Amino acid sequence: MKKIYIKTWGCQMNEYDSSMITTILQKTKKYSLTESAEKSDILILNTCSIREKAQEKVFHQLGRWKKIKNNNPSVIIAVGGCVATQEGKEIFKRANYVDIIFGTQTLHKLPQMISEVETSRKLSIDISFPKLEKFKYSLESKKKGYTANISIMEGCNKYCSFCIVPYTRGREISRPCDDILFEISILAKQGVREINLLGQNVNAYKGSTFNRKICYFSELIRLVAEIDGIDRIRFTTSNPREFTDDIIDVYKDTPKLVSFLHLPVQSGSNKILNLMKRSYTIEDYKSIVNKLIIARPNIQISSDFIVGFPGESEIDFQQTMLFIKNINFDMSFSFIYSKRPGTPASKMKDDVDLEEKKKRLYILQDRINIQTMLWSRKMFGTIQSILVEGVSDKNIMELYGRTENNRIVTFKGSPNTIGQFVNVKIKKVHTHSLKGELLQK
Ligand code: SAH
Ligand code: F3S
After folding, report:
1. Is the dihedral of CA 198, 79, 167, 339 positive or negative?
2. How many CB atoms lie within 10 A of CB 66?
3. Cβ of 350 below 6 Å from ligand 1
4. CA-CA distance, 112 to 133, in Å (whole number)?
5. Interval 337-362: pLDDT, tens
6. pTM for the full model?
7. Domains of the chain
8. How many CB atoms lie within 10 A of CB 71?
9. Ligand 2 site: residues with CB under 6 angstroms?
10. How confident is the model at residue 145 (pLDDT cuts 50, 70, 90)?
11. How would you classify the pairing of strands 2-8 and 42-47?
12. Is Transferase among the key words of this record (predicted)?
């Protein structure tokens, strides 16, 4: 058997794609996974291009792999994912020892592409966008652990002015509802208790059903909640646009849907949101949050932020800071604006000084950390439902699991509870992690 080594960068969608690549290659019975790049016959890099730094990392990594190939010229190097889709043959021009360039939608063609290279030793490239073809193979993947990500849709049609995703993942397309439900029911039989529905804009999900109707996102969540064994449902990422009232209503009647929502706002300034082409205002966002609080009073919201977008003045930034306090966001992701080639924002003047961008990022992250800590502190003394995921790496006498609001809790308990939900009283609070005591049922 030949050995494959996969390195994955980027979002959960890429992680999901890499697990499909593993399944597809293992199914051929010709390949097995290895943890060591040096011992591998096929090196696969699944790339991310969301920010410039992520993209540059690709060529640094390829440079390291070139040395492995110099020692063993039969090694095959494959580059896939968003950078491969965006750059195509340019990758080969910069790194001519690369053998395969595959796209975000053509990963299922890898076995065939590898065979081609093995016989011809010529570059094999396919960065086309065949619709949903790759998902034919997702069913067969066996999941480790008790939580699983399920991709429910691909691509994005929103074309926010800063974002490269619509160009690298293609147009928005939803997987058929029955395929998703079938896949989740198989996972539930394998012991999975928590599902994370994945996509760039899951709330825009519109999947076909077996009787040719359209299943909307709200309906999909309710159907997933009916699957025996699935007791917790999350989703990432949603978008304030199309976050319709029917989705908010699910929070009223589906307790399996967690009281924690990642809803990226990006900026607290309407001027910037308009330049970003986000198609909502902060008032729209606030109105969604108000409705969510009525539906689920204990809901916690996290977000993504971009600082230093072209034209962002000190006043715009202060509006973002005010909005962060106003919504009381919990743990969030924040980034310095990165100019991406081919996007509309790349034609705007990148006019905020880098030092200023760094300062704004620091101030923003500092505030978010305070708020995360305050949310965590509120949990002191409360009883939390934890899905026990395993034995703690740091202390083998302890177990760990996650709360609904995505905090890791460690506590003493029997490994027999791994894979089950248990009640834990929170006894110690750190910003991102907690310590607790297992309560008897
Ligand atoms: N669909 C999600 C975003 C997915 S991209 C949404 O609607 O918000 C993930 C995050 O990367 C974005 O939320 C944004 O904060 C960040 N991001 C995307 N493009 C970026 C860029 N050019 N520079 C900096 N951050 C960016
Ligand atoms: Fe990107 Fe906007 Fe879509 S941030 S993923 S273009 S919603």
Report:
1. positive
2. 15
3. no
4. 15
5. 999 999 999 999 999 999 999 999 99
6. 0.94
7. 2-126 (3.40.50.12160), 133-376 (3.80.30.20), 380-438 (2.40.50.140)
8. 8
9. 156, 158-160, 163, 165-166, 200-201, 239
10. confident
11. parallel
12. yes
